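All the exercises in this workshop are built on plain-text protein records. A learned vocabulary of local backbone shapes supplies the integers on the structure line. Once this layout is familiar, the rest of the handout is easier to follow. An example says more than a description, so a record of this kind follows:
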Amino acid sequence: MIATITLNPSLDVTITVHGLALDDTNRWTNLRLYAGGKGVDVSRAVYEMGGRTVAFGFIGGSAGRQLEILLDEEGVPYMFTPIKGETRTNFIITDTKASTQTRIDAPGPRTSKREFERFHRRMTEIHPKPSLVVAGGSVPPSLAVDIYFDIITEVTKFGVRSILDSEGQWLKDGIKAKPYLIKPNVREAEILLKRELPDEESIIEAALELLETDVEVIVISTGKNGLIAATKERIVKAVPPDVRVRSTVGAGDCTVAGLALKLVHNEPLVEACHLAVAMGTAAILTPGTELCHKADVDRLLPQVKVCETTTKEWLKTRVFAASGSKGVLGSQLSF
């Protein structure tokens, strides 16, 4: 089973307009509500694909109750900890005329020490014990910035692998607890390493550098170019087909869900990347914060290009390239 942790879930309101006019009255053409937050989205995507999951996190107020109703309607299991504060509401405005999408995110409610202790107790008492825990997203203002370090340390203590998908200081501190896998996008990896990653070679080098933190699997998502994944033994590249983008919201969460669905059963990394890219691509076919549909994933899977090489072989090609050798460069991440 895959358990997810969302410390700052959200009720996502998706508003569609045709031609957003600033400083004027606008009329929406469509409005939909979704249960949001990285972990919540991962659970929704895992459930859509037939996997076993349960979503943990904090929930409060009328927005929180609406979020629970939405998950009930989808059939997604959850074990939220109630809080006095109100679950945040995020707004996603899609302009179909300009093909733009704007997010307005709330910071989230304050959480008391007692409420966090109840959440911690629920997590430690879960039965059956999950095989994998996915934690991610933003952290409410009242919780410590290094909260993911504490959570991942606790998860590891119980012999459970973890995936961390966050950003900035939350990611930087969480990595110190040595999660099993992290999945920054290129921008997040650039912030983490304090340098630009302009091409595939620099992204692979960044992934290998991040392995030195003792995280076992580094996955860097590259948007329309798919992803690069690395372990100390293997490097994998997965590229999606060209599709019409309706919304990029939730694509990264579906990618994480695809990784989790395969890795929870100890399947090869190349298979995990294959499914991850298919699910992430399927998510961009849907409007607003709607996530991937299984039928789209099944259709896209044969179109995803995946290749791999050994880390040793890739490093050898860099040595050859640096020396200016005109000999055989060894395996390349190409199709």
In short: The first helix runs from residue 38 to 48. The CA atoms of residues 64 and 169 lie 26 Å apart. DSSP finds eleven helices and 14 strands in the chain.
